[in-house]
Amino acid sequence: MDEVREVVQVEGGVVVGHDGSKCAQEALRWAGRLARRADVELHVVRAWSMTSAPQPASWEPGYVPPLTDWEQAVRDELAAHVAAAGLDPACRVTTHVVHRAPVPGLLSAAEGASLLVVGARGRGGFAGLLLGSVSDQLVHHAACPVTVVRTGAQGRDFTTDEAGAVVGE
Fold first, then answer.
1. What DSSP assignment string belongs to 64-95?
2. How confident is the model at residue 162 (pLDDT cuts 50, 70, 90)?
3. What's the rounded mean pLDDT across residues 54-78?
4. Which pLDDT does position 126 carry in this prediction?
5. What mean pLDDT comes out for the span 14-24?
6. Which of 61, 108, 117, 148 is the most exposed place for a label (fewest CB within 10 A)?
7. DSSP-assigned letter for residue 60
């Protein structure tokens, strides 16, 4: 890895934003089920900064590692979240990390997507809000449809009929 990515763009499929929160993990599972049933690629995107990234292995007191080390730490953490989601092995998953603020990073990634999926609440500090600031901005500005997944929501899951059409249970 020679340079840190600041933009990612995908064509088609489902993009899911993941910030490491419980709500993002539920959004990942939901998006994974949908992508599998629709037989489309699932793109898991994490926008990060040094303040939101996990500490790289090369970090030690008095030494600030290069951005590539921070990016690798984000990649490793995101891969662990994807593995922990228990997605169907047939689901085609690609992970992307971008050194950018969440809203512009996800808006850019979703420009060519069929759907953008995010959790209702991220890791921000305003717990009383029903919808987080990132998900609110994405709903208003994304170029594709957006699904916001709430933690603990008990909506019906989707199945397919004999012809392969998606139907509610």
1. ---HHHHHHHHHHHHHHHHHHTT--TTS-EEE
2. confident
3. 94
4. 45
5. 95
6. 61
7. B
Using the structure block, give the residue that is written with the tokens 């594709």.
144
Task: Give the long-range contacts of residues 34-40, CB within 8 A, separation 24 or more.
Answer: 34/115, 34/117, 34/158, 35/91, 35/92, 36/87, 36/88, 36/90, 36/91, 37/158, 37/159, 37/160, 37/166, 38/14, 38/166, 40/12, 40/13, 40/14, 40/92, 40/114
- Tell me the residue length of the chain: 169
Q: What sign for the dihedral angle of Cα 148, 154, 156, 159?
A: positive
Single-letter amino acid, residue 23? C
Contact of 107 with 117, CB cutoff 8 Å: no
pLDDT one-digit tens code per residue, 103-146 = 999 999 999 999 999 998 665 544 444 456 899 899 999 999 99
Global pTM reads: 0.85
